[in-house]
Amino acid sequence: MKRVGTWLGGKSHNASTQSLSALDEPQHLADAMRAASEIMNDDVDAAEVGLSKGNSAFHKLGKGVVTFLRATLGFEQEIMREASERLADAESTAAEHQRHAQRSPTAYRSSIYPVGSEFALCHAESQLMSAVVAVLNESLTESIKGFYKLRTAYKTLDGLLQAEDRHRGGASASIASTSRNSLDSQRFTGAVPGGFGNESMSASRTSLPKPPTERATPATLGNGVDDDNDDDDEFEFVDADEGLPSDSVPARYLGHLVTSEPQGPFQKLSLNDEHPGSGILATTKVDYSAQDEEADLSDFSNHPVDEFIHSGSNLCFGILQLMLSLIPPAFSKLLYIIGFKGDRERGIKMLWQATHHNNINGALAGLITLGYYNGMIGFCDILTADAYPKDRCRALLADMRERYPRSHLWLLEEARMHAGDRELEKAVDLTSKSSRSPLKQVEALQWFENSLNCMYLHRYSDCSASFQKCVTLNNWSHALYYYIAGVAHVEEYRLHKASNPKLAQVHAKKAADLLNIVPQHTGKKKFMARQLPFDIFVLRKIRKWEHRAKEWGVEFVDAVGVSPIEEMIYFWNGYKRMRPEHLETSLARLAWSQSSANPLWAREGLDEHAILHVLRAATLRNL
Question: Which pTM does this prediction carry?
Fold first, then answer.
């Protein structure tokens, strides 16, 4: 008998402990994922309304995803707390439903995964998002708890992916071997993997153990709660069978997903009629699904539950591997808690695999993949030739713009691509002339991106106004916003000091007012219980200028040293995004310090001389 009533908010007291039948489950999964996907169109209200119509583990996971996305986009403590609460609820519900599914004769039985795997994935995904939120929290204790949760999520995801490998015929390597290799082939033999003070770790390379032959069981995937019989000693990393014929792995993706050719005039996509697309997608004719990827599970099953598990496991393990590979060395001891390192290449490959699926998992994978390339990779100078797959990223962006045409997230990524191509003016047009996003966190990101690009373009007044707008939309780092807004007016003061002294004094006052606000906002935000390095930097700068103003008997704005706005451009590696004419402007602004317009240069110390030469060298290198 179907149990639809209990899952759609019925009055049954045992609604949260019932398990869905094989007939009910796909519909509830589809409803929850469809509602959660509304967040990718910037529609929080529609997502919340849709997710409130059900009590399944899928609906609760969807609520967690919605709040998690808002938390990671805005870094606001209140939203982070809400995300933590929702994800904890989703985590406990998924664990409970997995146990009931394992005992229910009507639960869905996949030909690929053990019974209850869909709930195991919900549990692991909730844990992974909880861990990310915990690391972003200002508490070191919460951060450590978050890292430890990753270990449990890892074990669950590893079980799911091993089940896929077995279904493919055992041809693929166990994901566990990836992490084993990342540990320099060290094998844990006695204590909690990676535990502090673990003296039982073998220092020598172990022989290749025999791969497991039994099928993954529900116990393999974990049940979402700590089990006294869960022996950490058995959590080992194994090698894959390397004796495979070279022709057993397909050279390209052979799945049945229709993603090979972008459809429609993507170059004309826009978020409003007044601002048509700027053409960055016009030449996109690349199949982003066909590069060094395994055959998709759609070759073996087209069941929506199997697709959810497959796309979700690729998303989650991809995030896990990528995130762990990006942990700064200063925090590397935290990795001992979970006992392994990340594999960046493997993580990115799995995220690309997840992007093919037209569900919330695919959308999140697309957002993270584009964010990684346009954000992190986009800021780097030293890259290999294939580090940034431009055509593939553009094809992915075109696909996401078609799936979610109302979303400003993809517009933001397009602006970042323009900036990466040194088309800063186009990037500013996209972020400043588009319609307003109903999602506050996305609007804040647009203004922040616009602020940086105005800074690179030397549009100082626009830069200052944009950063002051960020103050009203986001509370992550007001010290950063006020500081750059203030030093932008320092540059305006210098530009007009000789030609228009009256206007220069207006900018001098604005600069002093904004910079005097900065110390009030430093030290309030912490990351893993440590003060933000930028806060320490700007506080020291302002104190130095205040001291020099008194010592030298000059106005505060005249005591400022080598162009602090150029320092900020260097800090964000804006020189990489500038064309020659922009870089020439930077050289001119740096030259002001040594010009006759600055009578205080003779009194500057070695530190300011060093700053000038470093900034000038960076500018010349980019020229």
Answer: 0.79
